[in-house]
Structures are given as structure tokens and as C-alpha cells.
Design brief:
Helix content is 87%, strand content 0%. By secondary structure, it is an all-alpha fold.
Length: 78
């Protein structure tokens, strides 16, 4: 059994260029999207820096009080 396929070189070249162009555009916009998200996150974090730091300190203080303080008191009473 023999299968023979004829492909016009111009059509093949156009198809390859089209595929490469679509892939390049998709890759470019993916990078651009990532940069946009990264910029937005930085704006929020730096814009609300004091609030975020305060919340982190409050949470850490609560965890230390709840978990570390009982262990410290236990060690001191030994």
C-alpha cells in the first residue's frame, strides 16, 4: 500500500507562518497578563502595607500567646 500526498509549498509555508504567529502572540499576551497581575498585586500590597503588617503582627501575637506562652509557663514551672 502506498499513500502519496502532494502539498503546495506556498500553502505549507503560509500554514507554518500562521501557526508560528499565533503561538508568538499567545506567548506574548501570557507574559503581558502575568506582568499585569504582578503589578496589581504589588500595588495592593504596597498600598495597604501598614494594614497588612498590622494584621500579620496581630495574628503572630495571637498564635504566640495561644501556643508558645503555655509551653513557656510549663517549662518555667518544672
Amino acid at each position: 500500500m502506498k499513500i502519496s500526498v502532494e502539498v503546495d509549498e506556498d500553502e505549507l509555508q503560509k500554514a507554518i507562518i500562521d501557526i508560528l504567529a499565533k503561538e508568538s502572540v499567545r506567548t506574548y499576551f501570557k507574559r503581558y497578563e502575568y506582568k499585569g497581575v504582578e503589578k496589581a498585586v504589588k500595588e495592593v500590597v504596597y498600598g495597604q502595607k501598614e494594614t497588612l503588617v498590622s494584621r500579620c503582627v496581630d495574628k503572630a501575637s495571637a498564635e504566640l500567646t495561644r501556643k508558645a506562652l503555655p509551653k513557656l509557663l510549663e517549662k518555667l514551672s518544672e
